[in-house]
């Protein structure tokens, strides 16, 4: 089973993000690590879930990640379009982080709408590429199918996995039945050929012995 | 000669002028913008716009006056750019403006063929002159206010009488080709008067610049340049009148010497030169061209144009020949003097008045005769001598040339962490508490100037929104108050407004007016006080409730001030800097006595700015250390009494024109908080700037090597350790960061040690080990080196280790060297103030003992007072001994010394066995040489422990220092024996001395009635002396010190106590009780 987008979002919430809080907080020690101390006006790294929570209660301002601006995203989009392979994404959960931040603090992100479209564009490009490569992969004739795909994000993997595994299974089944059928076919053919050849063989043996 | 050009305006006629003091350049161009540049390199000029394209610009009385295409001459306030009024109205574009030298009369020429004359204060209605039959191209006012010259598209140049403007004085017709508008005219024909008495008028006439003599309007000289292919368009004199510059329609710029008419420089640019001005201060010529570019020609005096020079030389020779041959000296003389100008003439006249002709004394009457009547009345020889004198004078420049100015303009005062005043939306301050923003609108009708005060900590106080009624430009905020300051205007004095939001009464704000003429330039806040720096080099101190606490004067213009709790950091000019450097001094002051008194911690020390930079930010780190940064992006921190670079912010930048705008510094987390400004020096208010944390970086050599990187980490952590120590003394909880820094220091030191070992740098390795703080780490190092078969190194480390343990006391004293500078100085202060009354108590507080050595001289100064000396000594000895708690000593010294030795032996055995076990365990893994090393460790441990037991160990003992590690062991045993003896003998001796000194103390008490321990004379005295006797008995080297006076013993006593403590502590260390150690060391510090 692959993870649902909700579950992925949950994972993405553990990513660190910078915030500027407007209150004092002592260091918090959690299982995943220490958070803080928070001091008003001074940037600090906290998990995304905390940042979103605080910003919802107007207790902090989230500093969007470096890559979340038009210039960087445009560059990434350009690279993604021009490269035959997948390019490295600035964040593992870029879509999830983007979604969470657009919800939590649209005002903090410069050119929010443009960033949104760019991210969607990148996603579409990558997804199209992924589907194309899947098609290419499946259309390979030889049976030991191998393909290496780098820089796929978790979201993309989860998106394609159900389809890919399912289709592979189907193909496998089809191929298996096909091969079984073929085998059966061949067997019956073989049977007949071996029979005829054995007859022929015995005949030739006989002729040799006669000589 | 150097030239540079840069973009200034868009395409169109662009004009240039300088402010009256010559500090700033003002340009106005076809885009309708007026820009005020600090210098040619200024990337962020103040810019404001006129109503339409500007054709001419002048500066007068803090007003920028532009002639625009919208038929008006407009005046704008300088430097804010606020529109004042329309000075003149025309029916056509105002093509050119000029102002009289005194700045009182404005003249403008217009495309409607008229020129208008008006007084700047508009006291009289403008006078209109129908000057030309075509649009007026340019105008120029005579510095003596006798004439006005105008040129028009009809090709004429006319001189008008100033007093009676409609009276034509002189007219040159068909000077240049005619046209119908300024845009189509082949030349702008911008004329200029000689700045000295207007003795010459320069007019660009086609391909020549003609100089006309005043009054006679005869041509004096014609200047030309070989590079010029078209016409001259503008002409301009330097302020001193020594140079004349001309700009051509083809982009030629030429500079001539105004005395000798030699061509100094000529260059060729691309576009029509439309504006030209000589920099009044520096040796520069600035031009603007029709493409809107600003052009600078530097050092035009240095490289002469060869051909021009030789040509003029020939001319001069010619004139000389003519003079002597034709013997028409009178004419020649006139000519020369006129050409030479007023200066030369007056010099000759003065010389004549006192009786000189040239350098030769001929007597007053004759000289005057020569001068007035010419050679006709005299013989030829004299005439010739005068002639040669005059011509020789002519061939060299008479007036001082505008040479390179070695002085730097002192930088303007500023408020740290604020953005410039001319911005509409700006930060008044951004600090740890919050942000003050100011918004102003150009619009007169909707005057919504406002101030927004926002607190970082929203729980602390809500945001405040104010109307900016008095045009406040300065602001600062702390957790108690918000302070705002405004500069003076014509009606109002400078003001300081304080919003004391922490006050518990109902009136939360107070406003105070500064005396007339005094302006506030900086505000600093601390706990309970407000400090304002003013233009009178004055620092005014207020309490938060508005009480005027005091006024202090500084030696120069205060640049910036900043406060932290009770500390105040002031920077001020200490005169003019030279060679591009600023001369800035600083003072760190402490407010004491309920913030009413300033005591100096550091004063009159130079601020070490980076070369050729200006101060850009000052402040305190979060921990309270003064910090500053300069325009070269280097942030420096006060380290003791010296400044060390904390962070070179340039390394964090990618773009060359990017800058960091510093907001704060944290020493414990080793970072600088700053806002990155792309392509600017200041951040915009929107979008809200994001603070970056820049890691501190010490600019070490070879930063790309691993060694330097590790050393960087090490140094930073050492710095951090000293900071945390200081913080701890103040009562902060910094244990965590200190431990972290401590661990990191050890780690990096060990890494460095290992690295040096592998690189065969044994000496360096041993030095790293010597830097390690704990003996434990050193043992590890020794293990490591013995593992590597480095016998020599292991030996060395052993010695170092031994020395380290011995010197532990020294190190503890060293700790006081990085004692906070404040405490050092306040102690000095304290001693001065209270030395007479509180001597005893301060010494019992560990005053002398804990003070660094540098403080000792103060005490000596006190003792030298002959009147008080004896009495004081006696009192002191008595007081000291009483406070020393003699009872404890009495019981302690004999008894415990015995028990102690026994406990020592026990602990020694214990530790030895431990070590033996260690070494046995070690043998298993180490080879033979390694075990040799381990045995050496044993050797090293044993004696030091023994030495540590020495009860009489005294850091003041001169013999101790001279001990080398080699013979130390021997000494140690000697001393140990002595110690044992001393322990046994002490009780006996003590008794005898007790008896003996009991009497003495009685005598003393009789004599000394003021003694506070008079009631109980017997007990303290013997105790103190018994102490000294034990000391004498155990320390052989000190036997002859026994009969030294009380004073010396007194000075030793505190150390005695300390050493006892130390001894006890070392015992604990041996017992492996580390916690106890720290506690006891704290105790000893407290004491």
Automatic annotation (TrEMBL), chain A:
One of its GO terms (biological process) is DNA replication. It is found in: Nucleus. Residues 196-211 have a biased composition (Low complexity). GO terms for cellular component: CMG complex; GINS complex. Residues 67-157 form the GINS subunit domain. Keywords: DNA replication, Nucleus. Residues 4-63 form the DNA replication complex GINS protein PSF2 N-terminal domain. InterPro entries: GINS_A, GINS_Psf2, PSF2_N. Residues 183-211 are annotated as: Disordered. Pfam families: PSF2_N, Sld5. Residues 183-195 have a biased composition (Polar residues). Component of the GINS complex. This is DNA replication complex GINS protein PSF2.
UniProtKB/TrEMBL annotation, chain B:
The keyword Calcium does not apply. Residues 971-988, 1040-1087 have a biased composition (Basic and acidic residues). Its main location: nucleus. Residues 305-333, 365-402, 885-904, 945-1087 are annotated as: Disordered. The keyword Cell membrane does not apply. InterPro entries: WD40_rpt, WD40_WDHD1_1st, WDHD1/CFT4_beta-prop_2nd, WDHD1/CFT4_hel. Residues 6-295 form the WDHD1 first WD40 domain. It is found in: Nucleus. Residues 385-394, 894-904, 1002-1018, 1025-1038 have a biased composition (Polar residues). Keywords: Nucleus, Repeat, WD repeat. Residues 708-805 form the WDHD1/CFT4 helical bundle domain. GO terms for biological process: DNA repair; DNA-templated DNA replication; mitotic cell cycle. GO terms for molecular function: chromatin binding. One of its GO terms (cellular component) is nuclear replication fork. Pfam families: Ctf4_C (PF20946), Mcl1_mid (PF12341), WD40_WDHD1_1st (PF24817). WD repeats lie at residues 6-38, 129-170. Residues 412-700 form the WDHD1/CFT4 second beta-propeller domain. This is Minichromosome loss protein Mcl1 middle region domain-containing protein. It comes from Allacma fusca.
């Amino acid at each position: 089973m692959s993870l649902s987008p909700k579950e992925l979002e949950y994972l993405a919430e553990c990513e660190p993000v910078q915030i500027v809080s407007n209150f004092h907080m002592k260091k918090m020690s959690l299982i995943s690590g220490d958070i803080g101390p928070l001091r008003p006006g001074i940037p600090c790294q906290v998990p995304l879930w905390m940042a979103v929570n605080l910003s919802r209660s107007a207790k902090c301002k989230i500093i969007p990640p470096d890559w979340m601006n038009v210039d960087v995203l445009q560059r990434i989009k350009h690279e993604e379009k021009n490269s035959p392979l997948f390019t490295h994404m600035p964040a593992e959960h870029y879509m999830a982080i983007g979604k969470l931040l657009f919800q939590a603090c649209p005002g903090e992100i410069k050119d929010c709408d443009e960033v949104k479209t760019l991210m969607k564009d990148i996603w579409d490009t990558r997804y199209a590429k992924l589907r194309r490569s899947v098609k290419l992969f499946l259309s390979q004739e030889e049976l030991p199918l191998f393909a290496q795909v780098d820089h796929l994000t978790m979201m993309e993997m989860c998106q394609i996995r159900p389809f890919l595994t399912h289709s592979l299974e189907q193909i496998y089944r089809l191929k298996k039945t096909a091969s079984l059928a073929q085998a059966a076919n061949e067997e019956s053919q073989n049977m007949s050929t071996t029979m005829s050849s054995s007859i022929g063989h015995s005949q030739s043996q006989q002729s040799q012995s006669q000589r | 000669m150097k030239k540079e050009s840069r973009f200034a305006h868009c395409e169109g006629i662009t004009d240039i002028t300088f402010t009256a003091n010559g500090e700033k350049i003002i340009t106005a161009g076809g885009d309708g913008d007026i820009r005020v540049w600090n210098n040619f390199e200024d990337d962020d000029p103040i810019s404001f716009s006129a109503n339409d394209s500007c054709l001419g610009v002048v500066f007068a009385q803090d007003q920028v006056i532009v002639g625009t295409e919208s038929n008006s001459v407009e005046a704008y306030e300088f430097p804010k750019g606020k529109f004042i009024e329309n000075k003149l109205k025309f029916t056509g574009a105002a093509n050119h403006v000029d102002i009289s030298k005194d700045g009182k009369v404005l003249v403008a020429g217009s495309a409607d063929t008229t020129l208008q004359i008006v007084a700047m204060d508009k006291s009289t209605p403008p006078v209109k002159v129908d000057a030309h039959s075509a649009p007026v191209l340019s105008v120029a006012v005579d510095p003596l206010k006798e004439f006005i010259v105008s040129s028009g598209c009809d090709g004429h140049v006319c001189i008008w009488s100033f007093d009676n403007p409609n009276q034509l004085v002189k007219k040159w017709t068909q000077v240049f080709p005619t046209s119908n508008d300024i845009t189509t005219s082949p030349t702008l024909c911008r004329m200029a008067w000689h700045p000295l008495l207007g003795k010459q008028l320069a007019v660009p006439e086609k391909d020549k610049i003609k100089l006309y003599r005043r009054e006679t309007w005869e041509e004096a000289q014609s200047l030309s340049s070989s590079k010029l292919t078209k016409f001259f368009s503008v002409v301009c004199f330097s302020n001193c009148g020594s140079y004349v510059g001309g700009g051509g329609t083809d982009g030629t710029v030429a500079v001539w010497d105004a005395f000798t008419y030699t061509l100094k420089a000529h260059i060729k640019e691309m576009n029509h030169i439309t504006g030209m001005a000589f920099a009044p201060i520096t040796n520069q010529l600035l031009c603007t061209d029709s493409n809107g570019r600003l052009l600078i020609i530097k050092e035009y005096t240095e490289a002469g144009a060869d051909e021009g020079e030789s040509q003029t030389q020939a001319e001069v020779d010619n004139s000389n020949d003519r003079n002597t041959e034709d013997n028409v000296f009178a004419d020649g003389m006139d000519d020369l003097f006129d050409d030479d100008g007023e200066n030369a003439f007056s010099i000759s006249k003065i010389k004549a008045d006192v009786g000189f002709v040239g350098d030769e004394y001929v007597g007053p009457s004759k000289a005057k005769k020569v001068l007035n009547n010419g050679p006709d009345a005299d013989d030829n020889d004299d005439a010739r001598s005068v002639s040669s004198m005059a011509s020789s004078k002519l061939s060299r420049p008479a007036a001082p040339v505008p040479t390179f100015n070695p002085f730097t303009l002192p930088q303007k005062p500023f408020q740290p962490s604020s953005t410039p005043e001319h911005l509409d939306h700006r930060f008044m301050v951004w600090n740890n508490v919050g942000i003050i923003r100011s918004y102003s609108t150009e619009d007169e009708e909707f005057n919504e100037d406002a101030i927004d005060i926002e607190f970082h900590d929203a729980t602390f106080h809500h945001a405040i929104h104010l109307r900016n009624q008095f045009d406040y430009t300065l602001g600062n905020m702390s957790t108690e108050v918000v302070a705002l300051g405004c500069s003076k205007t014509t009606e109002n004095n400078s003001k300081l407004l304080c919003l004391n939001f922490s006050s518990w009464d109902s009136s939360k704000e107070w406003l105070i007016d500064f005396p007339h003429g005094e302006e506030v330039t900086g505000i600093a806040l601390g706990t309970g006080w407000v400090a304002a720096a003013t233009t009178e080099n004055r620092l005014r101190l207020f309490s938060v409730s508005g009480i005027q606490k005091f006024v202090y004067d500084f030696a120069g213009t205060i640049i910036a001030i900043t406060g932290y709790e009770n500390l105040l950091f002031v920077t001020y000019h200490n005169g003019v800097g030279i060679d591009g450097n600023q001369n800035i001094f600083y003072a760190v002051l402490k407010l004491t006595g309920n913030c009413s008194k300033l005591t100096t911690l550091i004063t009159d020390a130079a601020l070490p700015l980076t070369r050729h930079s200006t101060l850009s930010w000052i402040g305190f780190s979060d921990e309270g250390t003064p910090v500053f940064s300069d325009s070269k992006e280097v942030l420096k921190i006060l380290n003791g009494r010296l400044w060390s670079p904390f962070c070179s912010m340039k390394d964090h930048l990618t773009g060359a024109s990017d800058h960091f705008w510093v907001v704060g510094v944290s020493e414990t987390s080793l970072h600088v908080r700053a806002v990155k400004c792309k392509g600017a020096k200041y951040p915009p208010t929107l979008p809200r700037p994001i603070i970056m944390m820049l890691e501190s970086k010490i600019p070490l050599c070879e930063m790309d090597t691993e060694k330097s990187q590790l050393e960087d980490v090490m140094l930073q952590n050492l710095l951090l350790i000293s900071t945390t120590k200081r913080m701890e003394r103040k009562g902060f909880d910094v244990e965590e960061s200190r431990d972290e820094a401590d661990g990191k220091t050890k780690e990096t030191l060990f890494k460095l040690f290992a690295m040096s070992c592998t690189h065969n740098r044994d000496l360096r390795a041993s030095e790293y080990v010597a830097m390690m703080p704990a003996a434990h780490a050193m043992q590890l190092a020794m293990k490591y080196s013995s593992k590597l078969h480095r016998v020599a190194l292991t030996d060395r480390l052993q010695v170092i280790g031994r020395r380290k343990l011995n010197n532990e006391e020294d190190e503890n004293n060293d700790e006081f060297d990085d004692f906070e500078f404040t405490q050092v100085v306040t102690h000095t202060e304290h001693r001065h103030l209270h030395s007479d009354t509180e001597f005893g108590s301060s010494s019992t507080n560990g005053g002398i003992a804990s003070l660094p050595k540098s403080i000792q001289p103060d005490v000596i100064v006190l003792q030298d007072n002959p009147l008080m000396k004896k009495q004081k000594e006696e009192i002191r000895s008595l007081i000291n001994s009483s406070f020393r708690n003699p009872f404890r000593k009495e019981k302690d010294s004999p008894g415990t010394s015995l028990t102690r030795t026994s406990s020592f032996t026990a602990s020694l055995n214990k530790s030895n066995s431990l070590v033996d076990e260690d070494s046995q365990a070690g043998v298993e893994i180490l080879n033979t040489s390694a075990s040799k090393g381990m045995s050496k460790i044993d050797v090293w441990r044993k004696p030091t422990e023994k030495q540590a037991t020495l009860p009489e160990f005294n850091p003041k003992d001169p013999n101790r220092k001279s001990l080398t590690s080699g013979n130390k062991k021997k000494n140690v045993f000697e001393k140990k024996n002595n110690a044992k003896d001393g322990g046994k003998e002490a009780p006996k001796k003590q008794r005898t001395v007790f008896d003996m000194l009991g009497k003495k103390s009685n005598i003393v008490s009789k004599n000394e009635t003021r003694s506070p321990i008079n009631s109980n004379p017997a007990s303290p005295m013997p105790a103190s002396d018994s102490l000294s006797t034990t000391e004498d008995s155990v320390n052989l080297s000190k036997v002859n010190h026994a009969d030294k006076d009380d004073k010396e013993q007194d000075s030793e006593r505190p150390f005695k106590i300390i050493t006892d403590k130390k001894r006890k502590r070392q015992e604990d260390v041996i017992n492996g009780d580390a916690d106890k150690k720290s506690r006891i060391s704290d105790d000893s510090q407290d004491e």
